[in-house]
Design a protein that fits this description.
mainly alpha; Growth Hormone, Chain: A
Length: 416
């Protein structure tokens, strides 16, 4: 079986768009939401990396976002459950409008405490996207590999552009403007989404309850345990580098301006996004578990390389690492989709992203704790150990998946 999967026509309800047009517009909104989701979560880390607020230091300010990242992981669980039981579309409406209101609240915050509350609310609403939006993209995709890869690229472009756009908004408007402008964009998009995309009540009842590749209970239990390790380790690696990258560039690439820091950080993330597009094509030619293993090895090697690099070479090392990180995210989601029924995907992705993004708060605390004691040499050293754990778990999953696919269809074509 290849990565190409034909999905049923989504959203049978009436609305201004019909059929294939609605499918494309829906996926377009979901791609845009993925970009916004990562963008808004990285506004604050970029702001405090480039400017002191309320007279506090970077180590003190970065810890303030802990609540936001805790909410980002924790609230993915109820978001996925509500989406499967109630409405995926309505949960996306809450995502857009809630993120917009929270960002505007952060822009208008009169104190550090008010800012912390706004960031916490932002984490709650931003948590909606991954368990809900990912399930919706897979549900609607006709070319699953390419569609998921492009969706991942959109998310990574959100990460890539966060530093550069935030720095530009700060330079033009102030740090408050860096929150306010994206807030208005989120609210405006939410209003358009309500008008163009109707509820999917009829389609919800038709979702499949059978996985593409069913697993025996024993194999499912082992893979589930390994994916817990994968989700936790991947979350620590991803979030540590995403949050700390502007500061790493600032410290290790010398004599550059604030805008140049943002631009270089954006360039590093774009390298990851471009690599993810390539992965979207590779999943149509190679087995997923093989790609997963290769990318895990690349990620570990890249983190170790980054730990020892400096000057211009650190940018090359970071670009290599981000390419591996973003590539494995797409493959990870496709593997889960292959072994999970559509009717359960919202909840399964909720658990996956709960584990991944709960580590966001741990990553922020780890950066604050280790940076104050040994700088980024210590932070990146700890990250390398997490990347090693991820690699070992992925290699084990690849071995099990190879046996499952071999027993299912001997001499089969590359699996999705």
């Amino acid at each position: 079986m290849t990565a190409e999967v034909t999905a049923p026509e989504p959203f049978a309800a009436d609305g201004p768009l019909l059929g294939l047009s609605r499918r494309r517009v829906s996926i377009g909104f979901l791609n845009w939401a993925h970009a916004l989701d990562h963008f808004v979560m990285l506004i604050y880390p970029t702001v405090v990396a480039l400017q002191a607020l309320y007279g506090q230091s970077y180590a003190e300010l970065i810890g303030l976002s802990t609540g936001s990242f805790v909410a980002f992981g924790l609230f993915s669980l109820p978001a996925g459950w509500l989406a499967d039981r109630w409405s995926r579309r309505n949960m996306m409406v809450a995502f857009y409008l809630g993120c917009g209101a929270s960002l505007i609240g952060a822009a208008l915050a009169p104190s550090l405490m008010a800012l912390a509350i706004a960031l916490f609310m932002l984490g709650i609403f931003a948590a909606i996207y991954h368990p809900v939006g990912t399930a919706m993209v897979i549900e609607s995709a006709t070319h699953r590999g390419r569609t998921m890869a492009f969706n991942g690229v959109c998310g990574n472009l959100g990460i890539s552009l966060a530093a550069g756009i935030t720095a530009a908004l700060m330079a033009a408007l102030s740090w408050r403007g860096a929150f306010f402008v994206p807030g208005i964009v989120c609210v405006a998009t939410g209003i358009a989404y309500v008008w163009l995309i109707p509820n999917e009540a009829q389609h919800k009842s038709a979702r499949s309850a059978t996985a593409d590749v069913p697993l025996s209970p024993a194999v499912a239990a082992v893979i589930f345990g390994l994916f817990i390790v994968v989700a936790l380790a991947a979350g620590l690696v991803f979030n540590t580098l995403s949050v700390a990258l502007p500061k790493i560039v600032d410290e290790r690439v010398h004599n550059i301006s604030l805008v140049e820091i943002g631009g270089l950080t954006t360039a590093v993330f774009i390298c990851g996004a471009l690599a993810q597009m390539a992965v979207g094509r590779l999943v149509e030619r190679f087995r997923l578990h093989i790609l997963f293993a290769v990318l895990a090895i690349m990620q570990f090697a890249g983190v170790v390389w980054t730990a020892y690099a400096s000057g211009a070479m650190v940018l090359v090392a970071l670009a290599f690492t981000m390419a591996a990180i973003y590539g494995q995210i797409t493959v990870n989601d496709l593997i889960i989709a292959r072994y999970t029924a559509d009717a359960w995907r919202g909840r399964v992705f909720a658990v996956r992203y709960f584990l991944t993004f709960t580590t966001s708060s741990i990553a922020v605390l780890m950066i604050a704790f280790l940076y104050g004691r040994g700088g980024f040499a210590l932070v990146l050293g700890a990250t390398a150990f997490m990347a090693l754990a991820f690699m070992i778990a992925v290699l084990a999953i690849a071995y099990i998946a190879a046996n499952v696919e071999r027993e299912r269809v001997p001499h089969a074509m590359p699996a999705e």
